[in-house]
Amino acid sequence: MNNIPGQIEAKYLLKILDTISSGINICDADGTIIWVNLAGCKILNKSREELIGRNVYLLNKEGAFTPCVIEMTAQARRPVTAVQEITGRHKVTVSGEVIMDEQDNPVYFVAHGDDISNWMEHVSTIQLEDLRPVLSRYLLELNKMSTRFILFNEEQPLVGQSKVHSLLVDILERVASVASTVLITGETGVGKSLVAKRIHDLSERRNQPFLHLNCAAIPDSLLESELFGYHKGAFTGANSTGKSGLVKLAEKGTLFLDEISELPLHLQPKLLQLLQDKTYMPLGGSHIEKADVRIIVATNREIEDMVKEGKFRADLYYRLHILPVEIPPLRERKEDIFPLLHFYLQKYNQMHGRTRTLSTQTIDALQRYQWPGNVRELENTVERLVIMAKEEEISIHDLPKRFLFAHAEKEALDFLKNGNTLSEVLEDVEKRIIEQAFKEHKSTRKTAKVLGITQTSLIRRLGKYHIRNEMNR
């Protein structure tokens, strides 16, 4: 290649890269170094001739540096940043980037970094207290940057690309910057607990505890002691040394109360006291204790209706409703379905040692489905398909029946739009259903039983639609 966009010749581009003070290391897809700039040579204390052609994985094993950021980037298939130690002498902040081809396969890896040892020596003479607010601000901004595309840590994804998702991202950033109570609402399975954790991770409390309590999962008789703790002798069977509650354990961090609508009426005034005064009384205690904890709550119910019915205190509801965050159901943000399918397909392929892909028809059927169980249902469906699919490519015939009916409905409507009669549409739908059932159950007896028709009637239809012949080809 002689030129690159902008009419800069490649040989001059490399000279330009040599003027940059940050080290730059470019590797091929196998981790072999194909070029490194002068700053990179200086950081690694090796000449260009010693580095080009060497494999970074082997250099890492030989102890030239640790960890190997290129290897970390290759495994994650996304940008990775880490502090790298060079032969035990100095430290470098290194960022790894992956360059993909049109088929989304890695072709190059780029690592770029700066020696921070001198900076660390210099900064030790500075008043660190003066730096903390600035560093804290930049850390918050870095956390927000990762939210713009895919919100996730390795175990808890919050994936999306719709306008609704982008709006949710903006809201999370704003509520994370303050300490006020947050009320998260949404249907079962939309990811309320993930949103709560993300708010915590974006906040200044991110390095403190994040504790999660499902109010519906604890018996009413134990819920108060779980929340506020108890002193010894507080009740029969109590631990002789007492017990710290979740409010105490979450000190300076975040306490997430899921299904807050299930909180018993007799405990609601105590939660209100905690929210208003930041104080609480453990069971069997003799004095009030202070708490520095942020409260995030969630529910899939309409608490306002519960207030009207006298099942939830109005003053507590209004106190919880300071920062409401509503997560729309998946059927209202269809653009998020495809990235979610892609994410979970990769996750469960890796988890179960598979290399499954989704056929175009399958993706189409999954995107049309209404997902009443939201993201949780989608995740469970993808895992099932990865495990149970008969071929490497997951076909529409691998889908549960509820998806097939949605697919048949779409095809029937398309058939009508193409000028076919109702009779032709019904025959086409009948043929497809019988074909799928016969393929799945193999025998006419089992297929007829599943379809709720006689075996004779089924055999007549198999002949009418030439299904046996088509499937034997």
UniProtKB/TrEMBL annotation:
Gene3D superfamilies: 1.10.8.60, Homeodomain-like, P-loop containing nucleotide triphosphate hydrolases, PAS domain. Residues 9-58 form the PAS domain. Residues 158-387 form the Sigma-54 factor interaction domain. PROSITE patterns: PAS, SIGMA54_INTERACT_1, SIGMA54_INTERACT_2, SIGMA54_INTERACT_3, SIGMA54_INTERACT_4. Keywords: Aromatic hydrocarbons catabolism, ATP-binding, DNA-binding, Nucleotide-binding, Transcription, Transcription regulation. It holds the Pfam family Sigma54_activat. The keyword Acetylation does not apply. SUPFAM superfamilies: Homeodomain-like, P-loop containing nucleoside triphosphate hydrolases, PYP-like sensor domain (PAS domain). The keyword ATP-binding applies. PANTHER family: C4-DICARBOXYLATE TRANSPORT TRANSCRIPTIONAL REGULATORY PROTEIN DCTD, TRANSCRIPTIONAL REGULATORY PROTEIN. This is HTH-type transcriptional regulatory protein TyrR. It comes from Brevibacillus choshinensis.
